[in-house]
Amino acid sequence: MSNYRIAVLPGDGIGPEVMAATVQVIEAVVELFDGLSVELTSYAAGAAHYRETGVALPDSVLQSCREADAVLLAAIGLPDVRKPDGTEVQPDMMVGLRRGLNLHSAVRPCKLYPGIKSCLNTADDGIDFVILRENLEGLFASYGGGCRVGDSVATDTIVITREGTRKVCEYAFRLAERRKGRPSDGRRIVTCVDKANIFRSMAFFREVFFDVAAEHPDIAAEATYVDAMSLYMVQNPSAYDVLVMENQFGDILSDLGAGIVGGLGMAPSAEVGDEHGLFQPSHGTAPQIAGKGIANPLAMILSAAMMFDWLGEKHGDSDATAAGEQIEQAVCRGLASGETLTGDLGGSASTSAVADAVVSALESKAA
Ligand code: ATP
Fold this sequence. Notes:
The protein is an alpha/beta fold. It has helices at about 15-30, 45-55, 60-65, 90-100, 160-180, 200-215, 225-235, 245-260, 300-315, 320-335, 350-365, and strands at about 1-10, 35-40, 70-75, 105-110, 130-135, 145-150, 155, 190-195, 220-225, 240-245, 270, 275-280.
């Protein structure tokens, strides 16, 4: 019997609403497996917590995240809650969690689910690729550093290491081995996205990528420049399977990826390291729709499915893996029936109606 301790961080804005929907789905899915249980413990952290206490991510919460088997996080940040320097607390907290849990790779699936219409007219073969974003280095290594000289010059420095690049590239190839290949022809292929024609750091990233590729001869490998990639993602998205790239490039292209598969409400993510995993939707706190009960919880629910998949792989636990699959299949059934279409997807379902529909799709599968 596996019992997983999950640290739950609902956060701000629509965070608590999409988290409540997701907890409902998690509690329902574990009921389907005799050998699976979860212990969900909720912690206060984020912008509202900063407003009350002056701390966004208390040390005790970070420690609880370290001790948990996985972390589920909804969304952090409120535009009117600012630090004395005028910036929001969200970057501090996310970089703190990434560094504190050593989450070296961010996994961002861009998948067009049945029942969702892409804004592209080039998606006939389907869209199903995954962006692997290096999560600790690149331009974000400069976060909290950087240099400003008077009123005339400011710099931030990009950092690429062999170890960090190897880790994210290895994750990309391992992921490609588990996937079915790109939608256009089923070929398993990892694409390195860089700017190796201009920057030494990027030429180095590409060099390490091909070193790792040589250790995975069963998976095809190619490299392309990031500017061209933003064109190809729009013109020919079905030609991609797994994309791996530097931190800032991944930050930008994953929003573009979300845009072509229905928007941020359909974009889950996993941030993983050798020990820890944190799972959260790609969207922010959407304060303008918070408290109305209309937020789309599917990105959060699909992030929970990724959590079960990661736990299953890490612990060799087929029940956890199956729980992740069950959630994704239930989401597919809900979308196909139209019951889980919230306003951002052209429907009128409420957040709680989506949770109910996903839960009943789970139950009907098990029956
Ligand atoms: P952040 O800077 O924290 O990433 P943001 O302001 O850039 O946040 P979001 O908060 O993600 O971005 O919101 C961007 C837009 O997408 C908003 O118009 C919001 O209403 C919409 N949106 C985001 N997530 C959802 C969701 N789960 N359901 C419905 N609409 C959403």
